Please model this.
Amino acid sequence: MRSAAERSSAGPPSLLYLPELRASATRFTLAGDEAHYAARVVRVRDGDRVRATDGAGRIATLRVERVRPALELAIEHAEDVPRPARACILCGAPEGERGDWLVEKLAELGVTELVPVDTERARWPGRARDARWERLAVAALRQSRSAWRLELCAPVQLAEALRGARTGIRWLADPAGAAADRSAIAQGEPVSAAVGPAPGFTDRERNALLECGFVPVRLAAQRLRTETAAVAVAALWAAARSAAGPGPGAPA
Amino acid sequence: MRSAAERSSAGPPSLLYLPELRASATRFTLAGDEAHYAARVVRVRDGDRVRATDGAGRIATLRVERVRPALELAIEHAEDVPRPARACILCGAPEGERGDWLVEKLAELGVTELVPVDTERARWPGRARDARWERLAVAALRQSRSAWRLELCAPVQLAEALRGARTGIRWLADPAGAAADRSAIAQGEPVSAAVGPAPGFTDRERNALLECGFVPVRLAAQRLRTETAAVAVAALWAAARSAAGPGPGAPA
Model:
């Protein structure tokens, strides 16, 4: 009999998202959205083994005791994956609905924290951080089979965001900046990047970032949209960190 | 009086897309979509100066002779930007509507050619390469203010795509690959990358790629979706090439 993972090898990934995994009993009944996902999308069967994570470092192998009348699971093995080095993006508001795929792609590429930043020229819409973003981050977690989920912060003013970004490597995405030096990132240094909103940072905001130790870094010869610059930063970080091997955050 | 470029500095970029630019008379009347874009989005006024490109290396400064009753333009200055080194992505079909933003982001990041590849496990929908993709590529051209537009090829079988990819640096996006070496790309070598469709390449397809000189390259510690891997490749190339200065393809 093929396992659920094999059945889904050309389909949806079979990682379950169980935020309560760490506190769960060894055997438990799963209900709600995740039970629906397991039964209808992964199509688990009695006796299957599936992987699950809480998105906060815990990852487990579970046995499907029975699917009906309710999904009963037993934890066979669990382990903790070390927290990956901080990879945080402070991001101004992009245009329109572009925040959705920003969230999805940053999550897939292993960014640890997205801080939506309200700026003088652009504010995030009130529904930022809504249930849709949570769903996108969970779907990306499944896709990447990671043990750590992107943390979605509430929108804050730039000054407040900067109070939380006073250590590690700090990039300011800037077409006039220098070429990106990724060597320290490859070695697991914590890293943050600030990306301007669609209409750009004001001079005052830019100066505040420079004073806070953010170094202008050029990502491309062309001008990039806000969400494109943020995803390009995440891609550079992902490649730099994976150059040193799978590393923390990614189960074997 | 502020120029159109200044008025739109916090709004839509004011680069016009005029495919017939090279053959245009010095003074000409603009009609259709682009005239509407100039009048309604850029909001040009009599006497304004605007930039325009044909997306094939020609870039010009135009003076707005009059806006009404029809948009009359005069070419004040035109120059040719050298063709950038080839940066080509052979891409299997992603899930659902994800091809749309694939096109937009590859265009923004300066990829020169997108070759949609039909594979054993996934085919591009018939409407690939439709008018929407053309619009997305043009919008990205405006956004990036580039003189060269992403070329959108018709979907082809992998074997045919490989016949066009026998020179230059060749990457195969592969979680089991080696770290990306971007030094030759920074020096302007032509480069291609193959990215598998959502269900992955088959072993036979993978072997065909390896035999054709494609080298497995790891982009991230995590598994990436098709469109994310393609955009991550484009971001690595864009950063590598911009490290050597703005370079060809980008007007000063």
